[in-house]
Amino acid sequence: RSTIELPGAQLALAQAVLRAARAADPRKPVVAVLMNGRPLATPWLADSMPAVVESWFLGVEHGTAVADVLLGDYNPS
C-alpha cells in the first residue's frame, strides 16, 4: 500500500454512518471497529468517533468474538 490511511471509501463510509446514527438518535452509542493487520493513520476517527476498537486479524470467528464483547454477551476479563 502507498498510504497508511483507511483504504478506499472506508473513511467516507465511517463518516456517513456516524452522521446517520446522530441524525436518528444523538444518544445512540457509536463504535468504530478496525479489523486490520497493520497500523493505520486514523486522525478523523480518533477525533470524531466516541469509541474506536482496534482488533487486528483474529481468525475466522473474529467478527463474532468482537460483537459478543461489544454487545456485552461475553466479558473478556
Tell me briefly what this model is.
This protein is 39% helix and 10% strand. It has 77 residues and is of the alpha+beta class.
Structure description:
With 77 residues, the protein is of the alpha+beta class. Helices cover 39% and strands 10% of the residues. It is built from 3 helices and 2 strands. Strands 1-2 form a two-stranded parallel sheet. The longest helix is centred in the first third of the chain and has 15 residues, at 10-24. The chain is flat, with a radius of gyration of 14 Å.
Task: Give the arrangement of secondary structure elements.
Elements: H1 10-24, E1 31-34, H2 43-48, E2 51-54, H3 62-70
* Residues in β-strands, percent: 5-15%
Please estimate the helix content: 25-40%
In round numbers, the mean pLDDT is 91
Distance between the termini: 36 Å
- Element-by-element helix/strand order: HEHEH
Low-confidence stretches: none
The number of helical segments is: 3
- Widest beta sheet: strand line-up: 1-2
Number of strands: 2
Shape: flat
Gyration radius, rounded: 14 Å
User: Which structural class should the secondary elements be placed in?
Assistant: alpha+beta
Q: Sheet bearing the most strands, described?
A: 2 strands, parallel
